[in-house]
Amino acid sequence: MVAICINRIKQTLPKMKNLTVFFICVFVLLPASVSACIISTKGQPIQGGLMLFKTAGATNIQLDGVLININSENGFVIGFHRDDTEVQILSGVCPDGVSFIIKLKPKQRIYDIQKIYGLPSNMVSPPANTLNRIKKDAQIVKQARAIKGNSVNYFTDGFNWPVKGTITGVYGSQRILNGAPRQPHYGIDIAAPLGTPIHASASGEISMVKNLYFTGWTIIISHGDYISSTYSHLQDVFVDLGEQVTQDQIIGRVGSTGRSTGAHLDWRINWLDKRLDPKLVADMR
Ligand SMILES: [Zn+2]
C-alpha cells in the first residue's frame, strides 16, 4: 500500500468535465504606469501558484479589494487556490499618486484522480466521538495559518524540499477512498523511512506544534506575508511554539502518526486560507 494520508470527507465530486477542457488563457496586463513602481515579479498566475512582487514605494496594494501586506523589503505576495478560476484584480498606488490595476487570470490545471480501495472503514469515516476533536483541530490550524510571520528569505532563497523520498501523493488530486469522493489533496506526500530528518523549507517562526486527529504530529511554520508551510504525520518534533527556525534546520522526523497508511511526510504551503502547490513554489528560482 502506498504511504498517504487520509483526508476529510467531501460531499460532492468536482465537475469532471473540467478534465476534458484545456485552458490557455493566462494573461498579465501591465499598464505602462505599473513599471514605475512594480520593480519585479516572480511566478505565474496559475492554480496553486505563488507570485512575488517587489515594489518601489507602492501603497494600498489590494487583491479584489482586500488589502495586501507589504513587507519590510517592499515586497508582497499573492497566491492562487486549487480551484481559482476567475480574473483577480491587483491594484495599488505608485508614489507619484497614479493608481494601477493588474488583471491576473489563474491558468487552470488538470488534476489526478487517485482511487484507493480496501481501507478499513474506520480510516475512511471518523467515528462520531471524534468530531469535536476534529473541529477543534481545524480551528487551531486556522489560527496558526492566520499568523503573518516576519521572515522574507523566500524572496531570495526560495523554498527547499523538506525531505527526499518517493512522491506518493500530489497537490490537487481528487481522492476516492473505498469508492467515496473526499476533499482534494492539498499536500505533497513524500514517502521516506521512519525517522528520516525533516528540514524547514524556509526560515520562519513555529506557529503550531500539535498532535492532530487527521495529520498526527504536525508543525506549521509562518514565513512572513501570511505564507506558511505544514509538515504532517511526524514521528518526532524538535521545535517549540514561537521558536525561530532557519531554512533547512531539522524540525522533526518522518513518521506515520494520525490517519496515515505508512511512513511519509505530507508537505503543504499555504497563503492564508489558499492552498498552494509546494512543487510549483519550490520550483520558483
Ligand atoms: Zn497527504
Characterization of the model:
- By secondary structure, the protein is mainly β.
- It has two domains: 22-104, no CATH class; 113-282, Glucose Permease (Domain IIA) (Distorted Sandwich).
- The protein has helices spanning 121-124, 131-145, 154-157, 278-282; strands at residues 38-42, 50-55, 59-63, 66-67, 75-79, 88-93, 99-104, 113-116, 166-169, 174-177, 180-184, 188-191, 197-199, 204-212, 216-224, 227-237, 244-245, 250-254, 264-271, 274-276.
- Strands 9, 12, 13, 14, 15, 16, 17, 18, 19 and 20 form a ten-stranded antiparallel beta sheet that branches.
- The longest helix has 15 residues, at 131-145.
- The radius of gyration is 19 Å and the shape is globular.
- The model is unreliable at 9-29 (pLDDT under 50).
- The protein binds zinc ion.
The CATH architecture of the largest domain: Distorted Sandwich
Structural class estimated from helices and strands: mainly beta
**Helix share bin:** under 10%
N-to-C order of helices and strands: EEEEEEEEHHHEEEEEEEEEEEEH
Ligand roster: zinc ion
User: Average pLDDT across residues?
Assistant: 88
Q: Specify the CATH homologous superfamily of the largest domain.
A: Glucose Permease (Domain IIA)
Question: Key terms for this structure?
Answer:
285 residues; Glucose Permease (Domain IIA); four-stranded antiparallel beta sheet; mainly beta; binds zinc ion; ten-stranded antiparallel beta sheet
Write a brief structural summary.
It is built from four helices and 20 strands. With 285 residues, the chain is mainly β.
